[in-house]
Specification:
single chain, mainly alpha, two-stranded antiparallel ribbon, 2 helices, 2 strands, 26% helix, 3% strand
């Protein structure tokens, strides 16, 4: 396996993989304005996956997004990893509302049974900044969580 750096940025063609357009159509609203539709309290570990948007995403994934996701894995992720690829059948969907959090707690996926060798790919569908960002450590166990922009 080739050396993969923590926090690499990989470019891809958003016209070829129009995830944002697909989701905007699914939600019938621009993604960058979803927070205008409902005011959610600060997410917790128990509530960070229970918005109406999460339900729509997961309920329609197979019919609306699966083919684009598989093409993205073949065309973008696999060439980057350059090794056999095992992937999550349905990717985890996160919503970054202003003045809220993406996840209810800082964590490592390994705490929930994921292998240490697992790679996570952040694929933002809108601009990320401040509280609308996923917070990530610069290196594992460093504790210096910062927003990804």
């Amino acid at each position: 396996m080739s050396a993969i750096k923590h926090l690499d940025i990989i470019s891809y063609d958003t016209n070829q993989f129009p995830f944002a357009s697909i989701l905007s159509e699914l939600f019938s609203y621009p993604l960058e304005r979803l927070h205008e539709l409902k005011d959610y309290p600060l997410f917790t570990r128990a509530s960070d996956q229970v918005t109406i948007f999460h339900r729509q995403f997961y309920d329609t994934f197979d019919s609306i997004l699966k083919n684009a996701y598989l093409a993205f894995l073949r065309g973008v992720v696999h060439p980057y990893v350059k090794d056999d690829l095992v992937y999550q059948k349905v990717p985890t969907f996160r919503v970054g509302f202003p003045n809220n959090v993406w996840v209810g707690e800082y964590h490592r996926d390994s705490w929930y049974g994921h292998p240490n060798e697992e790679l996570n790919f952040l694929v933002p569908f809108t601009n990320m900044y401040g509280s609308k960002s996923l917070y990530v450590e610069s290196e594992p166990s460093k504790g210096d969580f910062r927003p990804q922009n």
